[in-house]
Design goal:
Blueprint: H1 4-9, E1 17-20, E2 24-28, E3 38-42, H2 54-75, E4 80-84, E5 97-101, H3 111-120
Antiparallel strand pairs: 1-2, 2-3, 3-5, 4-5
Length: 122
């Protein structure tokens, strides 16, 4: 399968993991225009959010709640958005939930600096 998220799950592509369990992975998105933008996705290849069970949705939003609270604390964020893209707006056909902080990356921290700050809080 030529899915970038499946390759990340299989360890073929490196990523900055913020959370991992048997079913899900949360990583920093490569696009850091917004400070600490991250994504959560199931390890099972599921194409889009319409195919998620209620249990999947509940689990993903619980992870999103915990990850976003850490981002809010570490970077003094005042708000976040949670977004699923679908159809023509879904660039990668493996369902993923974006956590988009309201703060632009005005200090231009790179992904490794952001990751280090979030991991220091563990």
């Amino acid at each position: 399968m030529d899915c970038i998220f499946c390759k990340i799950i299989n360890g073929e592509i490196p990523s900055n993991v913020l959370y991992e369990d048997k079913k899900y992975l949360a990583i920093l998105d490569l696009d850091q225009s917004y400070l600490a933008h991250c994504i959560i996705f199931p390890k099972e290849h599921i194409e889009d959010y319409t195919m998620l069970s209620g249990e999947n949705l509940k689990e993903m939003f619980e992870i999103a709640k915990n990850v976003s609270q850490k981002i809010i604390e570490v970077f003094s964020i005042s708000g976040v958005s949670f977004t699923f893209n679908y159809g023509s707006l879904q660039e990668i056909k493996h369902v993923h939930l974006h956590i988009l902080p309201d703060k632009e990356n005005e200090n231009h921290l790179d992904i490794q600096e952001i990751y280090a700050k979030l991991k220091d809080e563990d």
